[in-house]
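Sequence in, structure out. Go.
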Amino acid sequence: MRQDHKGRPIYDLQSTATEFAAELEKHFNYFASVPDSVYNKVLVHLKHWEYPSRENHAIAMAFGAHLAGHQPCVLIQNSGLGLCIDALLGTFRLYNQGLMMVVTNRGILEWEEIQHQDWGAITTDLLKACQIPVISFNEEGLAGIAKAAERARNNEIVVLLLERGNIDE
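Output:
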């Protein structure tokens, strides 16, 4: 990954928050999100989103929305994975249902807050251990949303991983 003089990432595949939200809404009609600075500007462009207090609540709300016939998408930061793995495995995985999660990969850059550092070091390994496929927005751009949505429609839990700088923060 290329970095600028302050150690911030320079990405070739970037998107505006408006473009990102529009692409999400092509595939999903229910959003639950515990806000994160990486995608906060995206949320205001979604027609409607729910604001649960914790990430595991977002998973539960998404499962309820799925049962009601909606196509849910959950947006969280990687530190929320610790709270939501049991909910993911006990609902979507147990009942063989798909879900796309947009997860921000916080803590991989030196200058990020210390509370994110451990999560930055383990996120991809944790998802691999949970057998949750990852699609990198940094590699796929907006096309990654469609790829992840297709996998969710095929009853997989899938993560679209966002890095700092992939969308305008």
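Check: The domain at 13-162 is CATH 3.40.50.970 (Rossmann fold). The first strand starts at residue 2 and ends at 3.
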